[in-house]
Design brief:
The protein has about 80 residues and is α+β, with helices and mostly antiparallel strands. Helix content is about 35%, strand content about 30%. Strands 1-2-4-3 form a four-stranded antiparallel sheet.
């Protein structure tokens, strides 16, 4: 609630796999951000899948070697959501 205009994406490497978490504040969602679609698209770049609500979502990834590439693409993915 304190950061209503923020979108965050977190990647965690654990036991040879990836876990992604994305959150979006109310103002960010109103502007077009969708945490579920963002995290799903990022996870897909690592061979994973997932998604969730516009404000909170999780996904799993498979190819740990592609995590930096996937995170670098997140800004473009989010930019497309915001138009």
């Amino acid at each position: 609630a304190r950061y209503a205009d923020v979108v965050a994406l977190l990647a965690i490497r654990r036991d040879g796999a990836l876990q992604f978490l994305s959150v979006a504040g109310k103002e960010a969602v109103a502007a077009g951000a969708h945490a579920g679609k963002l995290v799903g698209a990022v996870a897909a770049l690592t061979g994973g899948k997932g998604g969730g609500r516009p404000d909170n979502a999780m996904a799993g990834g498979k190819d740990v070697a592609k995590v930096n590439e996937a995170l670098a693409a997140a800004a473009d993915i989010l930019g497309a959501q915001l138009g």
